Amino acid sequence: MLITHDTQCALDVLVDLLNTDPDAGGQEGLPDLAALRGFVVRHEISEIGTLGTEDLAAVRRVRGQFRQVFLADSTRAAAELVNALVARAGSTPRLTDHDGHDWHMHFFAPNAALADHLAVEAGMALAFIVVAGERERLRRCEAPDCARVFVDLSRNRSRRYCDSRTCGNRLHVAAYRARQRTATDTPDAMTPTR
Ligand SMILES: [Zn+2]
Ligand SMILES: [Zn+2]
Prior knowledge:
Elements: H1 5-18, H2 33-42, H3 53-71, H4 75-89, E1 91-96, E2 104-108, H5 114-131, E3 138-140, E4 149-151, H6 164-190
Antiparallel strand pairs: 1-2, 3-4
The chain binds zinc ion (2 copies).
Residues 141, 143, 146, 148, 161-162, 167 line the site of one zinc ion.
């Protein structure tokens, strides 16, 4: 799959954002403005002014809408959601080489609020995925007690869990225990019931 470094970065930001959602199976990962500021700093999101409580509410709202893109059951549904997100935020595509980076595109409007910035940049990254025919790589973790999302960038689209070190392992342990149980149950199962 051909995706640019910038698209990859935008997707990383988006997945991190989506997994702060309590709907992803954990606690609210953006409980306050300090957490939102931490998110901006961690991902080096550029051109963000002073953040207020309205930004927190708006980012959470956009987060919920992007989560629906990952859960969408058709490409058409995903495309409509992405279109709506980008249209509402308003975009201004332009070339930039800020902060010593190579020339790259910014799609968010100058002075855009953080939620609009995220909506446009992540929305465009998802648009490229859809155009590449790779929408099904936007996944929800298959572990039964996990609702985190991820982008499957594996060559053969075989990734099933958000993080193989946690969810994948947890399932292996569960499968092992189930086998152990079956092994101890076997003598009983073999006893003829008359
Ligand atoms: Zn940039
Ligand atoms: Zn998971």
